[in-house]
What does this fold into?
Amino acid sequence: MATLPALSDAEADERARAVFDDIRRKRNTDFVNNFWRVLGNDPPLLEAVWGRLQEVMGPGALDPLVKEMIYVAVSVANGCDYCIHSHTAAARAKGMTPAQHGELLSVIAMASQTNALAAALGVEVDERFRA
Amino acid sequence: MATLPALSDAEADERARAVFDDIRRKRNTDFVNNFWRVLGNDPPLLEAVWGRLQEVMGPGALDPLVKEMIYVAVSVANGCDYCIHSHTAAARAKGMTPAQHGELLSVIAMASQTNALAAALGVEVDERFRA
Amino acid sequence: MATLPALSDAEADERARAVFDDIRRKRNTDFVNNFWRVLGNDPPLLEAVWGRLQEVMGPGALDPLVKEMIYVAVSVANGCDYCIHSHTAAARAKGMTPAQHGELLSVIAMASQTNALAAALGVEVDERFRA
Amino acid sequence: MATLPALSDAEADERARAVFDDIRRKRNTDFVNNFWRVLGNDPPLLEAVWGRLQEVMGPGALDPLVKEMIYVAVSVANGCDYCIHSHTAAARAKGMTPAQHGELLSVIAMASQTNALAAALGVEVDERFRA
Amino acid sequence: MATLPALSDAEADERARAVFDDIRRKRNTDFVNNFWRVLGNDPPLLEAVWGRLQEVMGPGALDPLVKEMIYVAVSVANGCDYCIHSHTAAARAKGMTPAQHGELLSVIAMASQTNALAAALGVEVDERFRA
Amino acid sequence: MATLPALSDAEADERARAVFDDIRRKRNTDFVNNFWRVLGNDPPLLEAVWGRLQEVMGPGALDPLVKEMIYVAVSVANGCDYCIHSHTAAARAKGMTPAQHGELLSVIAMASQTNALAAALGVEVDERFRA
It folds into this structure.
């Protein structure tokens, strides 16, 4: 368990349960993952996060799979184990191949090491990189 | 300036200058950015990082532009100002549109907030997200 | 288990046990949580950390509950699962209501996303924000 | 400058300018800080962030000053220089005294060191801290 | 389990198994730890990381034990539980005493708190610290 | 400038000036760097941090130069530009050679990338790495 319990449908209040229903409907599944069930303890926050997530992660100028891989990258750098697992699964569900996963990992590892080197060296931003 | 100086071609030793030349050739430009010029103080590290970067960032299962956006995402989460500027510029040079940039920012912001929430709530990873 | 064992009172040396006793006395409980029991492997560090914690977290210009919430906020941003759990529990013991917890989570999530955006955009600090 | 320019009112499009106007009105000032002016390059993101910020930071179960201090705490842990400066200024504008600022800094420093120690020791979360 | 399975020798392909064999040979042990077994799902990445690790961690201007302690320090600051455990074990195998471990922890804790304070205060880098 | 001003000796109160004097005496220099001058706005915190720093960084089971390199490593991972500069300078003052600096950078870069990979893969800690 966590700092707050993951609520079953029966334990959730009406507003939270409405979001759980919307998650099942939009994702065409009967599965609601723990993140939402724990967030269900605070229905206004649950609604705000779920609402914004749909706006951000849907199709647009970037492919939904690309968005999931960016999500994984941020989650790795922030060390969020839950988010790494859930968004890696989401990326696979959207078609990420093992080769793409391998390249995602390689870019994340590369960026992590040059981030550290640029910080350690205190490199000044080149004029031409500024807007 | 930084913790080590950015070396001009004249200041760099032969091994470092050979990498600077390779950067200019591969990128088809006469510009060598500060990261490499500072790293030039340690030629073996410069060679290792430049060599690996080329393997990782070239075409493959993921589009080079997608790789640059993943690089930006990691750099933002790690708070590396230099890397954010240089890889945002690289992404633009590879065709990133303002709309794509806006969606990249939105996904990064979204992931950052759910990373924090999942951590704050201590959410347990769902069984089905494990390999 | 961890990188060092959590010491029972019998396993701890005299200096560590004296701190465990002080923790019980000051907190008016017979419970000593794992953080202190693991830190008990290094009595001078245990004494330094416990001593400083009391100076910092006691009443002063800020309410003790407010201090616990600030502690949780830092721990979330640093991704420290242990600290998130222990200081969320401490905040509840000091009277944090579910509504206050919900607002704490919302502020943490909001800050996390604008931290990421300000970094991604490389926003310059406004003159009037400088001391 | 940054990865995108800070837009003057004249440079911003109509949607961005409407947000700038709303910021001035709600804050009762003629000053719009750089964060919003840079975010003005992406009006939908600007609207989403500004809208959510007002919901989160207004009065509620927590005092607005407490919220600003939590915001500072997260921003410090994430190393966001811009956010540290802007929210420290906001906390002062809401009445934060030097003594409160000092205690805020002390709690942040304390949490940062015990976060590191708990991580370094791999301390297991005590059963009683779980929901 | 993880986002990818830890491969036994039988499950690994030829390239991955060759790296496992090299790990056993170089470390003079029959034990291959999980990091490599999970990385074995992507043989090119496994080879690149293992190859680079040997170049970096071997004897040179710094003692191998000192390198392991630096590795632990970075891993703590990044909150990488796996790396903290594996490199603390490696440091012990290379002779780290309890007193050295205690001082390592103390320095990490000290740096973590002054890192936070310097960020919170936005301290300007002194001219004489620049290269 | 920063979120608080760097105080000259004339601007500092008696308690802060006593710490500045102690810094000059212990370090045998007439230079007091900005970190302490800004912290001088909160004399009790200044005393606590300076006092603890001396206990932690002096000779002991680890060499003072090794401690400085560990300090740099943590500061890089936390992205603290001020601390990177000041402790890199301190390490040089204690004899760090360019070759040692290069290896320090290489270990930090290596750890940063395997930290990210271990997180991305969600690798389980091996039983034998636990205390």
